[in-house]
Amino acid sequence: MLKGFFSVSSWIMLSRLLGLVRDQLLAAFLGVGPLQDAFQVAFRLPNMFRRLFGEGAFNAAFVPLFSTILKKEGKESAHLFARQSLTMLLLCLGIFCCLGEIFMPGVIQIIAPGFGSDNGRFGYAVQLSRITFPYLVLICAAALVSGVLNSLHYFSIAAAAYVSFNVVGIFALVSLSPYVGGVAMAAAWGVTFSGVIQLGILLFAVQRAAMPLWPTLPVLNEKLKTLFRKMMPGLIGSGITQLNLTVDTIIATLLPTGSVSYMYFADRINQLPLGVLGAAAGTTLLPLLTQELAQNNTKQALQTQNTAMLYAMGLTLPACTGLIFLAFPIMAVLFQHGAFSVNAALLASHSLQAYALGLPAFVMIKVLSPAFFARGDTATPVKVGMATLALNLILNLLFMRPLAHVGPPLASSLAAWGNSFILAGILLRKNHLTPDKPFLRKLGLMAAASLAMGIVLFILSYETATLFKTGHSLLRATLLGGMIAIGALLYGIILQWAGVIKIQTFYKKVVNKVKKR
């Protein structure tokens, strides 16, 4: 599992870093204003589908079924099931996409009610959304192909394909703007073009894996009915984080112009560790748990889950601390260029701090959900998810006026903590989660090391605040890099001293692997 975890996380990290470059270009070219707000709303709907399908929810239903058929009925039966699933998925989403294109003004009124009084933002959002909407068909098909590759233990290529999303996006921003009517239009076309490239890469990879996926005649047999029954609640259960973020966006459109943009750029930074750690853990954990439980190896399944939680929390806790105490330096270094002002960076940093408070909870949801899905239980995460979705909406309504652009991120974080605590409590009650003393000891030491690191980072960021507001971009980047290095070194030293990690052992493994290659 560790090999798959780091393989997937490495590709996702590369994708996220390229995503930052893409967002920097958006911030520099468009700044914070009506056009930026309109593009972010146009991007939200297909992007939600990308995260729902590409990072867990579709796999939660498809992978266990495909893996079980592959193990019990053989490769030929599993291959046919995958092709039939792809056909039905394309048929259903193709119809849905056509309806969306026709009724897009009504869709925008639902997901961006605040744009109704602003004809400029509303018109832009409708136009851009019609360009980006076909991406959801392409990325959902890509998610199915990725699920096949993951089930066959080809983790790397499935994760690598998503790098093309940001590569194409960067190319579109830099090259297409003069030909398609501006930066926002170029960014929208880049989203859809990237879907074509991603799906093409994955189809080529699955063909190389001796399981080519081409559509068949539409058929709705018992296996497909089972898939769709499990998929629908799985979408809600596994994707509740994305639904909460969508609620945040809806509320943000009712706030002053620029709020959607502040929250978007803050969320993009928060998504870097969340996507790398949460998605990687969920992607690699689900197939392993499914196989171990299918073999009645319950003890190993519980140990696998504990190990995944420690890997995830060992990296998430310091990331959470760093984002909270270095929020403004991070926003200043990454986005304080061109049309993106110092004040915009400061306001966006407040949203980032609110999102970062819930980062460990967001990741834990990704790690805990496979424990339900691997056992065929998609109902429980749905019930918990709907309850926390309602909580998020209530908190949003309470926070939106007094806290403005900080309210929705804070509401989302608190709802995520509620979601993770309830999921963990249910698993504990059913003995599907057994944190032993070594696990709790290591987790406690990780939290203490993160707190110590946070104190040091707070002092450093306080003393250098003026330099991040007025200093040269190279100076800001150097200072931020130095503070991150100091925090990471302190965290590592504390865990090494406490015996939680053994850097020498890890170093030897890396060296040996490099020598073998």
UniProtKB/TrEMBL annotation:
CDD domains membership: MATE_MurJ_like
Transmembrane portions of the chain: 88-112, 132-152, 159-180, 186-206, 227-252, 272-289, 310-335, 355-374, 386-404, 410-428, 440-462, 474-499
Keywords: Cell inner membrane, Cell membrane, Cell shape, Cell wall biogenesis/degradation, Membrane, Peptidoglycan synthesis, Transmembrane, Transmembrane helix, Transport
UniProt pathway: Cell wall biogenesis; peptidoglycan biosynthesis
One Pfam family in the UniProt entry: MurJ
Membrane topology: Multi-pass membrane protein
Stated family: Belongs to the MurJ/MviN family.
NCBIfam families: murJ_mviN
Protein name as catalogued: Probable lipid II flippase MurJ
Upper classification of the organism: Bacteria, Pseudomonadati, Pseudomonadota, Alphaproteobacteria, Acetobacterales
